[in-house]
Amino acid sequence: MHVFQGARSVQLYDYLFLLFSLVFLSSCRDADVQIPMSQLGIGVNSSEVVFGSSLALQGHAGYLGQETLRGAMSYLQHVNDRGGVHGRTVRLIARDDSYDPPKCLQNTQKFLIEDQVFGLFSFVGTPTAVKILPLVEEAEVPLLGMFTGANALREPFTSNLINVRASYYQETDAAVQHMVRDLHLTRIAVFYQYDAYGFDGLIGTELALKRFGLEPVARGSYVRGTQDIGEGFDRIREAGAEAVFMIGTSDPCANFIRKSMESGYDPIFYMVSFVGAKELARNLFGTGTSNANVLMSQVVPPPIMPDGKVTESAEEFVRLLGKYFPGEEPNFVGFEGYINAKVLVEALHRAGRDLTRQSFLGAISSMTDFSLGKDVSLSFGPADNQGMDKVYFTRLHDGRFVLVEDWKRLPQGRQ
């Protein structure tokens, strides 16, 4: 467990309550568990407000959780060093779930029962976030800044689920439009992780293709946490797909690209943002894939451009990351974590000194004009729990992902 704080530790629990909590936790085995609201502390006192974060810090998706946490903590530590918000520091308790849904559920139960958190923050991954939804809805606790574009977190509208980023439906829809309209491609396949995350990207792609009277020419999948891509690869290659939409994590996607190039199959490879640009570039570096056409959508702009210029909205992020995590390179994932933290702190400011979960959620819905610069702005509302809608596209070039400025000049895949 990682605990980040700028004030005194939360008070010790009454012995009987702690005993009850431990017994209760041992019996919690599914998301259908009911937690009496009277046993949920609000996680706020005169000196601090406490949030819990369950995210992958180890395993095949560990890089995503690590980068997200560093980005968020670069801003939260800055805020705490300046006295916090309305005199309260923000304490974040981070626990590793290794991208495993049952472990994420267990972490969330501990946050709510043992840690008495005010809210949940920056969970990473679709299968993990979806697993805890019944628990979050029952507890009526705010969950803000999830690193996932899952539709289940957006529809139906739920006021205590606060999304910052664009959805996977928006990412895949924008990608399909560019592929069909700008590149005139019609044979598109989907390679996806066989779980809630992969299904979300698959459905988003199918819906987008349907608007053009198309459907995937092939669908191939792999099991989360494995590298078994063979069957999915063979099915997609045999279909002669001109572009492959990849809804997975970095290692399987990189393996698919390497195998494709080795076998002479050279389509356009497109990935949604969750794959992670920095990690994928690292995975592919020096593996004979330099000529592959690799595209990735992003939900934030690049913090640093190829010429070294810092994006306007990322100036504070780059400075604070260098201060609190020297040597770490600014990237898309970390920048998203930083923006999540900016939204959280802004809501705490707007909620005022008399902080409650209700006033916090009300503050979120009032954020119709929150800007980080000319290139990034967020807008929420009483019936809008997603702050950003813009999708950016990048292309792997010389070992890094750079913005796509003209789709019509992109080289088309060769089957």
How does the SSE layout of this entry go?
Blueprint: E1 2-4, H1 15-27, E2 48-55, H2 62-81, E3 89-96, H3 101-113, E4 119-121, H4 126-139, E5 143-144, E6 161-162, H5 168-182, E7 188-193, H6 196-210, E8 219-222, H7 230-238, E9 243-247, H8 250-262, E10 268-271, H9 277-284, E11 293-298, H10 315-324, H11 332-351, H12 357-365, E12 370-373, E13 376-378, E14 392-397, E15 400-403
Parallel strand pairs: 2-3, 2-4, 4-5, 5-6, 7-8, 7-9, 9-10, 10-11
Antiparallel strand pairs: 1-3, 11-14, 12-13, 14-15
Please, could you describe this protein's structure?
With 415 residues, the chain is an alpha/beta fold. The chain folds into two domains: 230 residues, Response regulator (Rossmann fold); 149 residues, 3-Layer(aba) Sandwich (Rossmann fold). It contains twelve helices and 15 strands. Helix 2 packs across helix 11. Helices cover 38% and strands 16% of the residues. About 9% of the residues have low confidence.
Number of strands: 15
Low-confidence stretches: 5-41
Determine the CATH superfamily of the largest domain. Answer: Response regulator
Q: Can you tell me the CATH class of the largest domain?
A: Alpha Beta
The number of helical segments is 12
Identify the CATH architecture of the largest domain.
3-Layer(aba) Sandwich
- Could you tell me how far the N terminus lies from the C terminus, measured between alpha carbons in angstroms? 48 Å
Query: What percentage of amino acids are in beta strands?
Result: 15-25%
